[in-house]
Design brief:
The chain is of the alpha+beta class. The chain has 3 domains: 2-238, no CATH class; 245-327, 2-Layer Sandwich (Alpha-Beta Plaits); 332-386, no CATH class. The chain contains 11 helices and 18 strands. The protein has helices spanning 14-23, 28-35, 74-82, 88-108, 124-139, 170-175, 193-202, 263-272, 303-313, 360-370, 374-386; strands spanning 2-7, 43-52, 55-64, 144-147, 150-152, 157-160, 163-166, 181-183, 203-206, 213-221, 231-238, 245-255, 277-284, 290-299, 320-327, 330-338, 341-350, 353-358. The strands form 6 sheets. A 5-stranded mixed sheet has the order 9-4-1-11-10. A 4-stranded antiparallel sheet has the order 13-14-12-15, with helices on one face.
């Protein structure tokens, strides 16, 4: 399994994360091309090589050439992302980062995520940093993200659009609540709210560096000279695929009195909260009434996040919980050379048997670019995969 390990030598910020990805192998041209799908103007990326404590690193600045005079709300940012031609995975990750950022800011300011309007968050540079990070994950085919304990500065102050804030800022520590951190005595904002949100939204937790096989390493530089190297180290690595036997829980409920238009929203909520799968089955209930069986597959440790969604977002009065075991085959994303060029595919391995299946987003892209029916693209790729 390909992972990205964020080693927060001197904390983490949005621009440091983006720079570290470029240093680790993401092409700046590819990044700019994907960011262009946002249809945003008024900024440019400026990259330079820089040395921190003798370590070669990348400094990547989002230079604003025309900053809008208004402040954006979360719904405005979602609209920008959703209306773009970026992949669904990039959109999902970017919106999750913004969601964590919104929750942190809203909690600090005692308001809701819908009502809060951002200064730093809604600025062009934050949008580029966050969406750019989601793009880089896809370009490097990262399946999971892990980090070191996140470094925080302390004892100083930082000027923000909200006024002078103590370090670490209230939003940063709110976002990183319940995540491993290290409080240093450096009076500088090592970790910004954007950096904290990237960690909270994307990371699967903290792991030791010796537990994986390193493939490439990149360094993203911060702006100031510190008493320690002002760097974020990104390690792209292979992590041994975990054991495929899993203990999971199935939650299910029968519903016969809810507007069917609500179900897609409920499923989106369940998947965003960590469910492995969520699906609907039409059933016949007592007295011959048609109904829906809502079923969710989830890890046991995520029950506290999933069960409230059943009771707050549906009309159910109760749920059934079944403890099950699951076996799954090993799978990873690879690039395959085809008549359409390099195509992203899924390699599935079970013992000595391997098979390739095309990724939907790749087939969709090819169909739209070449003007070929989607079903024909699948047939053509599958034929090439099996030759």
């Amino acid at each position: 399994m390909r992972i990205a390990y964020l080693d927060t030598i001197a904390g983490i910020s949005g621009d440091m994360t983006l720079a570290a990805f470029v240093s680790a192998g993401v092409s700046l041209d590819s990044l700019e091309r994907e960011l262009g799908k946002l249809k945003l103007e008024g900024y440019e990326l400026r990259l330079k090589e820089i040395a921190r404590s003798g370590i070669s690193a990348v400094k990547l600045d989002v230079v604003i050439t025309n900053q809008p005079k208004y402040h954006r709300h979360l719904k405005d940012i979602h609209q920008i992302i959703d209306s773009s031609e970026l992949s669904e995975k990039v959109k999902h990750n970017a919106k999750n980062i913004f969601k964590e950022l919104a929750i942190g800011e809203a909690t600090v300011h005692k308001t809701s995520i819908e009502k809060i309007h951002f200064h730093e968050v809604g600025a062009l540079d934050a949008i580029v940093d966050i969406v750019g990070t989601a793009i880089c994950l896809e370009l490097l085919q990262i399946e999971k993200v892990y980090t070191s304990p996140v470094k925080l500065g302390s004892g100083g102050f930082v000027n923000t659009e909200h006024g002078t804030m103590p370090i670490p800022t209230p939003a940063t520590i709110e976002i990183l609540k319940n995540y491993p951190t290290v409080l240093t005595n450096i009076p500088f904002e090592l970790t910004t709210p954007t950096g904290a949100a990237i960690v909270k939204a994307l990371s699967s937790g903290v792991i030791a560096i010796e537990s994986f096989e390193m493939k490439s390493i990149g360094y993203g530089s911060g702006s100031k000279d510190l008493e320690i190297p002002n760097l974020l180290r990104l390690i792209v690595a292979e992590l041994e695929t975990p054991k495929t036997d899993e203990s999971l829980v199935v939650l299910e409920t029968n519903i016969d009195d809810m507007n069917p238009e609500i179900y897609p929203y409920v499923i989106e909520k369940l998947l965003s909260a960590g469910a492995h799968d969520a699906y609907l089955i039409p059933i016949i209930m007592k007295k011959g009434r048609p109904g829906i069986l809502l079923s969710v597959l989830v890890e046991k440790n995520k029950l506290e996040k999933i069960t409230p969604i059943f009771f707050s977002q549906t009309s159910t009065l109760g749920i059934r919980i079944h403890h099950i075991e699951r076996q799954k085959v090993e799978r990873k994303s690879i690039k395959v050379t085809t008549t359409f060029g390099e195509v992203q595919a899924k390699l599935i391995t079970h013992g000595n048997i391997q098979r390739l299946t095309p990724e939907f987003e790749e087939c969709k892209r090819i169909a739209e670019e070449k003007g070929i029916p989607l079903i024909e693209v699948y047939k053509m790729l599958e034929k090439e995969f099996f030759e």
